[in-house]
Automatic annotation (TrEMBL):
Gene Ontology terms for molecular function: DNA-binding transcription factor activity; transcription cis-regulatory region binding
Cited PROSITE patterns: HTH_TETR_2
Chain intervals for the UniProt region annotation (Disordered): 190-209
Xref: Pfam families: TetR_N
Gene3D superfamilies (UniProt xref): Homeodomain-like, Tetracycline Repressor, domain 2
Residues within the DNA-binding region(s): 36-55
Record protein name field: TetR family transcriptional regulator
Residue span, HTH tetR-type domain: 13-73
UniProt keyword list: DNA-binding, Transcription, Transcription regulation
Annotated InterPro entries: Homeodomain-like_sf (IPR009057), HTH-type_TetR-like_transc_reg (IPR050109), HTH_TetR (IPR001647)
Source species: Streptomyces xinghaiensis
């Protein structure tokens, strides 16, 4: 009998979450560098191949919400309400993400990331990937087109806003401060309106009876 797809996907997601939770607990208890993939697999009671079927690397175990983060940024652009301006929609999403990362219990994880060169490098690469994905979503916006450079720049600013605000004393106030600058930059990137073509001398009123 074939297992229903919904149940199979739920089991797969539960296994992934169990592995990630186990890895994070071990990393915080013993130190990131002291724990190997085999340790995680043994503690989670799965095969090493199962760990790698869910996570491409040891670093990815720490950033298990990586894909969801990227999807949320794109959705803030493509799924916002009609006529809602782009930058306020992105600000709202970044505030929600920062609020989640500033929740109780998150500080030790970010401290581990900051203190581990491999994790910092992975995070930087991950954020660049998110920025490129967000830039593509922004470039598909209706209305006066911005240049590719403008879309990529704003996307980088938005992704960096998350990292900068996460480190601030007052994260939400930091988001608002950063986004005031982002909004100004986005407006500055608006293409200039074309002036009407000049009427050649002597043709004004031509054809009138």
């Amino acid at each position: 009998m074939t297992e229903p797809t919904g149940r199979r996907e739920r089991k797969k997601a539960a296994t992934r979450q169990k592995i990630a939770d186990t890895a994070l607990r071990l990393f915080l208890e013993r130190g990131y560098d002291a724990v190997g993939i085999r340790d995680v697999a043994t503690e989670a009671d799965v095969a090493v191949t199962t760990v790698f079927s869910h996570f491409a690397s040891k670093e990815a175990l720490v950033f298990e919400q990586d894909e969801g983060f990227e999807q949320r940024l794109r959705q803030a652009v493509t799924g916002r309400a009609p006529h809602e301006p782009l930058i306020p929609a992105l600000r709202r999403e970044i505030r929600a993400l920062v609020r989640h990362c500033a929740a109780d219990g998150a500080a030790p994880v970010w401290r581990m990331v900051d203190e581990t060169p491999a994790l910092r490098e992975y995070e930087e690469s991950m954020m660049l990937r998110h920025a490129e994905s967000l830039a593509a979503a922004i470039a598909g916006e209706p209305g006066p087109p911005r240049t590719t450079t403008a879309c990529r720049t704003i996307a980088r600013f938005v992704v960096d806003a998350f990292s900068l605000a996460r480190e601030a004393t007052d994260p939400e106030a930091a988001v608002d401060e950063i986004f005031r600058m982002i909004e100004a930059a986005w407006e500055a990137a608006r293409p200039p309106e074309r002036a009407p073509a000049p009427v050649p001398p002597g043709t004004a009123g031509a054809g009138r009876g």
